[in-house]
Amino acid sequence: SQQGEEDPQALSIQEGENATMNCSYKTSINNLQWYRQNSGRGLVHLILIRSNEREKHSGRLRVTLDTSKKSSSLLITASRAADTASYFCATDVGGSNYKLTFGKGTLLTVNP
Amino acid sequence: DVKVTQSSRYLVKRTGEKVFLECVQDMDHENMFWYRQDPGLGLRLIYFSYDVKMKEKGDIPEGYSVSREKKERFSLILESASTNQTSMYLCASLRESGANVLTFGAGSRLTVL
Question: In chain A, fewer beta carbons within 10 Å around the N or the C end?
């Protein structure tokens, strides 16, 4: 079952612009993570935000979490052509089985 | 610096063949996972293992089995491949303690003809 759903499905911007992707989920979570996937490759972890955190930064990435709305956003500032990739949110509901549930992803294209 | 290695990047098999997808991690992680990724469906969990010889079904285990004889190796087995198993297969691992952050392999793209 799909827990996280990213929005939009696809996003095309110019280099230097900011990109914002959203993720909504259905049940209470322990933490939420964002991953990046370059075309035809595996996923790479970007950032994790815990349920008791509201905002987190890592370099050009800014993640927010609103547990009352069950939603998160990923902001990439000053985008570069190399940021072109698919971005996935993954939710961790806790418990002992360490399962993450991924959304369908947002395809970001940054045009030079 | 590669941490999770999937032995085959591209495979082409025929319907009915037995297919082995191998995954090795060098980080001494207890937990390993197999996902498949399809356009419009995202990542779906097939099986995972939290210890040697232990396995649990994920969301879509039908048509698959797994083997974990050693801590570092987690194999996905398609007993009789079918065309609807054409997909990208992703292996991942994570350490038991700390946050549940997955380390993925590069993926294995399987085509079943």
Answer: N
d(CA B108, CA B17): 17
CB < 8 Å to A98, chain B: 31, 48, 50, 94, 96, 100
B90–A43: do the CB atoms touch at under 8 Å?
Answer: yes
Paired residues of A22 in beta bridges? A7, A73
**Structure tokens belonging to residue A7:** 């929005």
Looking at the complex, does the CB of residue A95 fall below 8 Å from at least one CB of chain B?
Answer: no
H or E element in which residue B90 lies = strand B87-94
Nearest to B107 among A2, A42, A90 (CB): A42
Nearest to B94 among A1, A98, A105 (CB): A98
Backbone angles phi, psi at A81, to 5 degrees: -55, -35
Tell me how crowded residue A47 is: count the other CB atoms within 10 A of its CB.
18
- Closest partner residue to B101 (CB to CB) among A48, A103, A105 is A48
* Cα angle A58, A4, A101; round to 5: 90
* pLDDT, mean of each 10-residue run, chain B (113 residues): 86 97 93 93 92 92 96 96 97 78 94 98
| Residue-wise pLDDT tens digits, A73-89 | 999 999 999 999 999 99
d(CA A92, CA A100): 5
Q: Which of A105, A104, A110 has the alpha carbon at shortest distance from A82?
A: A110
Nearest CA in chain B to A1: B59
Q: Chain B within 8 Å of A112 (Cβ-Cβ)? A: no
Residue that the structure tokens 């419009």 belong to: B40
